[in-house]
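In this section we walk through a basic example: taking a raw amino acid sequence and producing a predicted 3D structure, encoded as discrete structure tokens. The instruction is simple. Fold the sequence below.
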Amino acid sequence: MKSLKGLVVVMALVLAGMFAAPLVAQAQDFKGKVAYVDLGKLFDNYGKTKAYDKVLEADNTKFQDERNKKIEAVRDLQSKIAALKDDEKAKVEKDIEKQKADLLEFDRQKRTDLTKARDEKVREILQEIEKTVGEYAKAGGYSFVFNDRVLIYGADTLNITEPILKNLNEAYDKQAKK
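The resulting token sequence is shown next.
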């Protein structure tokens, strides 16, 4: 039984060596162009991102204003409750509880909607960045373009963030003018 296990181990090592040797040889013979991009910088400095940030901020402000009005309506009712008769108090307390529940549901739904809209826009922007990087890489004859977040080190001469950012913003400006 020991000899069978030993044979299996030896065969596995031989097979691994057979598959690994060509990969090592290919890596040593690689002559392609390699570059990387600062994805965070592309995302943050892309005109479309900045424009959407303004839209998102306006939507959030509108949400906060609506929410504050609902909170104020509840507070108004709570401040008036002390002056009411017992039978009226019960009715107003019931109304307050309903408004609180409505406020919680409104808050939950609006936050979900805002998050969903933001996530969709982020996905759209990242897809545009990926497409532009791909087009730039093909046009420039690059074999690989990496995200700087997966690099331990990258020479500044291999960083193609600026020309890609320029291409992104030029395309966005042309589209925005239409």
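Looking at the output, two observations stand out. The two ends are 76 Å apart (CA to CA). DSSP finds five helices and two strands in the chain. In the next section we compare this with other chains.
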